[in-house]
Amino acid sequence: MKTLTALALNQAQLLGASYADIRILETREQGVSVRNGTVQDANEVQSVGFGVRVIVDGAWGFASSAILTATEVEQVTAQAVAIARASALFLRQPVDLGPAEVHQDIYRTPYEIDPFGVPMEDKLALLLEADRLMRSDAAIKVTYGNLVSVRRHQFFASTEGSDVEQELVETGGCIMALAVKDGEIQRRSYPNIFRDQHTEGWEFIQRLDFLGHAERVGSEAVALLSAPQCPSGVTTLILDRTQLGLQIHESCGHPTELDRVFGTEAAYAGTSFLTPDKLGNFRYGSELVNLTADATTPGALGTFGYDDEGVPAQRVPLVQAGQFVGYLTSRETATQLARLRGEDPAQARSGAAMRASGWNRIPLIRMTNINLEPGEWEFDDLIADTDEGIYMETNYSWSIDNLRLNFQFGTEMAYEIKNGQLGQMYKNATYTGITPEFWSGCDAICNEKHWGVWGVPNCGKGQPSQVAHTGHGAAPARFRNVRVGVMK
Amino acid sequence: MLGQTEVQHLLERVLHRSPADQTEVLFLGLEEALTRFANNEIHQNVAEHNYGLIIRAAIGQRVVAISTTATDDASIEQALERAVALAKLQPENPEFPGFAEPVPLPETTVAYDEATATATPESRARAVGEVITYALSNNVNASGAFRTSRYEWGLANSHGLRAYAPTTLADLTIVGMTETSSGYAADAAWRFADIDVAARGREAVDKAVQSQNPRPLEPGDYPVVLEPYAAQDLVNFVGRGASGMSVHEGQSWMSGRQGEALFDKRITLVDDPQDQALWPLPFDFEGQPRQRVKIIKAGVVGDAVYNRLWGEKTGHATTGHALPAFSPFNPSQAIGGSGPFPIHLALEPGTASLQEMIKGIDRGLYITRFNYTRVVHPREVVITGLTRDGTFWIENGALAYPVQNLRFTQSYIEALAEVIAIGAEAQCERGYFGLSKAPALCLPRFRFTGTTGF
Predict the structure, then answer these.
(1) B376: nearest CA in chain A?
(2) What pLDDT was estimated at residue B331?
(3) SS3 track for B384-412
(4) Which in A105, A138, A279, B425 has the greatest CB count within 10 A?
(5) d(CA A324, CA B260)
(6) Which of B24, B31, B40, B48 to mutate to test binding with chain A, by most A CBs within 10 Å of its CB?
(7) Mean pLDDT throughout B426-436?
(8) In which element (H, E) is residue A9 found?
(9) Using H for helix, E for strand and C for coil, what is the string for A204-229?
């Protein structure tokens, strides 16, 4: 590998690049799924390739290839340089990466049981048994489950002298039951329909305990068919930690991406309401709200050793005691922000949030693990302390505007809260709000005992599109004066 | 590009070495370049040379799919051995229909354009440069992306089926922004030259200028004129419901309703793989001829689309709508199973111009596009999302002033039940996998449920 990385870096410099890096990535993924009692997927993906990123005449160029030979490395490097020269035709501000990042290191995801060492027959047997257990009622028309194992072995080298090797291992899965009757369709899933995924081994799947949850998933899907519609109005809302995880993802994670803030995602995902003038002087939420971007959270999906610019993983505060205090940054945007704020760009450090979905994509600012720090409440006490409201769990739908202000979420299931107790089950639950108003209404967060991280393996961003793996730590929390029941 | 001879040779090498009872091998090749701009400069400019083999191997009724980027003999043999070993670990799948027998493919135009296949970074940069120049002259901040793609697909199986097609696509998105507004334009075609980048740039920039200083508007039910960009969203969500899998499983708006007059009589929605204005393709990813399917016929719920598995399960012939087993190019896509899928959706145009539509509205909304739309409930295709990049109040048959963006929560089935007018000209955009085509729509009511303040 070092011969190829050196070849690319030398070639780039010879062709006039002021900076270059190369990532060589070997990926192995295994996906198995079961649908209605039969095997739907038994797939393995093996991919090898490399991407070369260069700065020439102050502009970026990137090219990539699946052919890992010396000749191809030379050609692709030359292509990246030619692309950068084309980019420079319409350039207003030359790229400044700030201080050099020079690291030589090896990082490997710690895990107990290699997910690729677990026989496929055991994985299918687990899914098939969960599938059987979910089919408790004739109204269950679809049952589904999947398990995914990922190993990414990557090498990063730069002209600044970095040389970083990483092996990242991920394991994830989910089960789902769909009940259909008289034109009504209701879904229940565990932990959710996207899968929960961690940087752990098979021990994570063992902890998920699909067989312990499968019957409940099926029976709740059936119960939802006859549950009343979630009422409309403004009330107190308590969210479970997985729905809260997606709330954090959409309304805190994305708007704190500094590339969005600077407009470079404007044509696709949009920009952000968290403009630089608000940094340090904007009330994002109540004083209870502390949000961090923590790429070091053990086992979480957004955990790594180094980002794809070779910057070490960090824990970066985003919101402290309700105040907006930080962004997700890259080397380039950290420097731009420093310049904008009249600070020394030579001292600007990236928060290590640059990640690419594969060797064929350029790194973008992506969420790591965006965590809501735990509060002090026991969950039972929180319900008991709530006279009237709604408890919602497990995401169903999600939508937020291009500045990340107006959101609307739906959940698979909800319960009425009355006189401090959970009551009637509701179907088709939705809630909507404006980000800082919503977080300002947060008046209780459950404690460490109820806190956990949830992996989002399907975060889309960028053109060409990239799918990132992010994590979100949260415990159930309460929000006052929330509009619920938007769907008639 | 490897070319037909080399691709077919590669596929034969795989089949020749396979110890499986049945084998299918799909070659997916990609050369794609994308020039992305923001803040009136090019900030990302990328190229990708990628390919993969997806090998499906069956031992009896047990099937495994393996993809690999390694195409030397030893790697192919390793992949086949792995596939067979994994297949043997599975229970029998009684639903596996076997791989396809050879079928004649239609003599049709294949969407391949050499100029698109060989577009250079300079040609994209210069086209984008015209947009930037126009934006700067109007004090507008332009962003967007211009992509050219060359695909090469080859398929072979142990029953003798052989298919090969190269194809191209180009697509463009532009957002123009001012301090208080934005505008949008997009286009897609399989011929690079069919996209007038400069004209689309003027459209986005002019819209941004026109929509400055928007006024707030209370949510509520309003008549709407939807530009083709907004109408695309209805076409795609309603069209996706035509998956034979979803229909059979009761998840679709079509389930149990085929033959019912659910929509306005002027609504005809087709999936048309031979439409030259879309992306003409001869076969699907099982090597079956792609067929034109009428999903809605003059307001009446029509036919679903099928691949071989779901056709066989439900007593239908395949309509040539199989996707690959999974996508080898996007990490974390090792799970497939999305079933048959329409990738050439087209809502048939009507006769009205946008001006005629606006003239017909006393009080209503003119909407450029929708953003971040998601399913709230699948049966009635209840969708929530937001307006974006140019929303205007219509009063007395004319555009009165720009308004702030609104959230809507609306059943798309209900929305298409009654139509005031359908636009005469349809517009192409890149959809979930292929291209889709929609004209403007004028609808008597659309439910807006929230405001944004911008």
Answers:
(1) A397
(2) 58
(3) EEEEEEEEEEEECCEEEEEECCEEEEEEH
(4) A279
(5) 54
(6) B48
(7) 90
(8) helix A2-14
(9) HHHHHCHHHHHHHHHHHHHHHHCCCE
Q: Sort out which chain B residues have CB atoms less than 8 A from A360's CB and list them.
A: 48, 50, 329
Which of A29, A83, A301 to mutate against chain B (most B CBs within 10 Å)? A83
Q: Considering only the beta carbons, identify the residue of B35, B94, B375 that sits closest to A397.
A: B375
Q: What is d(CA B319, CA B245) in angstroms, rounded to the nearest whole number?
A: 13
CB nearest to A467's CB, from B38, B173, B331: B331
pLDDT for the residue numbered A136: 87
Inter-residue long-range contacts of A415-421, CB under 8 Å, 24+ positions, other chains counted: A415/A390, A415/A391, A416/A390, A417/A236, A417/A238, A417/A383, A417/A386, A417/A387, A417/A388, A417/A389, A417/A390, A417/A391, A418/A387, A418/A388, A419/A387, A419/A388, A420/A383, A420/A384, A420/A385, A420/A386, A420/A387, A421/A383, A421/A384
- Which stretch of DSSP H or E encloses residue A382? helix A379-384
Q: Residues 238 to 297 of A: which have CB under 8 A from any B CB?
A: 262-268, 270
Residues of B in contact with A402 (CB under 8 A): 371-372, 386, 388
Question: Confidence band (pLDDT; 50, 70, 90) for B106?
Answer: confident
Copy the structure tokens of residue B152: 């090469």
Residue of A nearest to B128 (CA): A90
What confidence category does residue B325 fall into, taking pLDDT thresholds of 50, 70 and 90?
A: confident
Give the C-alpha separation, B311 to B417, whole Å: 29
Reported ipTM: 0.94
In this structure, what token pair is assigned to residue B28?
Answer: 């997916």
Whether the full predicted model's pTM is greater than 0.80, yes or no, is yes
| DSSP H helices in B211-366 | 228-240, 244-249, 308-314, 354-359
Out of A141, A148, A469, the one facing B334 most closely (by C-beta) is A148
Residue A90 has φ and ψ, to the nearest 5°, of -130, 75
Give residue A92's pLDDT: 84
Chain B partners of A47 at a C-beta cutoff of 8 Å? 52, 67-69, 328, 331
The mean pLDDT value of chain A amounts to 96
- Predicted confidence (pLDDT) per residue in A58-92, tens digit: 999 999 999 999 999 999 999 999 999 999 988 88
pLDDT of residue A488: 57
Q: What is the pLDDT of residues A192-235, one digit of tens each?
A: 998 999 999 999 999 999 999 999 999 999 999 999 999 999 99
B240-258 pLDDT per residue, tens:
999 999 999 999 999 999 9
Burial degree of B207 (CB within 10 A; 0-12, 13-18, 19+): buried
Residue A275: its pLDDT value, please? 98
Torsion of Cα atoms, B351 then B356 then B358 then B360, to 10°: -100
Q: How far is A181 from chain B (nearest CA, A)?
A: 9
Q: Flag if A46 and B68 touch (Cβ within 8 Å).
A: yes
Q: pLDDT grade, residue B332 (50/70/90)?
A: low
Interface test with A, best of B126, B136, B372 (most A CBs within 10 A): B372
Contact B165, B176 (CB under 8 A): no
B376–A397 C-beta distance less than 8 A = yes
